[in-house]
Design goal:
Elements (H helix, E strand, L loop, with lengths): L1 E5 L3 H17 L4 E7 L12 E5 L4 E3 L1 E2 L9 E2 L1 H17 L4 E4 L4 H4 L5 H9 L4 E5 L4 H8 L3 E4 L3 H11 L5 H5 L12
Helix pairs in contact: 1-6
């Protein structure tokens, strides 16, 4: 019960995961994990990354400000591990129906990041939905050992996978929005 949306556009995959997570919550599911979002307290910079621990925060900025002369952004490994710890604690403290994670990226490819949360969720038979780009696809495939479903970046297809792999909900629950989560919307 592991799926990755194969993507080439980070902004598009952020929005897609946000929409799917919102629809899951609207349908009555408990969703844990972390999504990339616009941080309401910081002006978005070109390469700034902020994750929101689901379902209700906090926001954690993952990029370090290296000053005006810097030509590149730098990920803050401590901030990444903070988000992983918060999302894992949230998962362990409640009944999660789905774990939604912004991506299987460099940290996960190197054996860190959200790999432990993915493993914990799968051990507990909780479906995990994430994204993966071409750069880290081979590492994801090795990690998944043939047990993952690769999905196209199509909301309908992703929601169908969720319906097939999550706890049963009446069809009407999927179509009647109850909540709007604009703060989950990716950049």
């Amino acid at each position: 019960m592991l799926a990755a949306i194969e993507t080439t556009q980070t902004d598009r995959s952020d929005r897609l995961l946000s929409m799917v997570a919102c629809k899951l919550v609207n349908a009555g599911y408990m969703v844990s994990g972390a999504l990339r979002v616009a941080d309401p307290e910081h002006e978005p910079a070109t390469c700034e990354t902020t994750l929101k621990v689901l379902p209700d925060g906090p926001f954690v900025r993952l990029t370090q400000d290296l000053g005006q002369g810097s030509a590149a952004c730098r990920m803050d490994a401590g901030a990444i591990e903070k988000v992983v710890g918060l999302a894992t604690a949230r998962f362990q403290s409640g009944q999660s129906d789905f774990v939604v994670l912004n991506k299987f990226g460099l940290s996960e490819a190197q054996g860190r990041g959200f790999r432990s949360l993915i493993g914990l969720a799968l051990q507990n038979r909780v479906p995990v939905l994430t994204t993966v780009g071409k750069t880290h696809r081979a590492a994801f495939d090795r990690f998944a050992e043939g047990m993952a479903t690769i999905l196209p970046p199509d909301e309908g297809v992703v929601l169908d996978w969720c319906r097939q792999n999550g706890p049963f909900r009446e069809k009407s629950a999927w179509s009647e929005p109850k909540l709007n989560h604009p703060e989950w919307q990716g950049r």
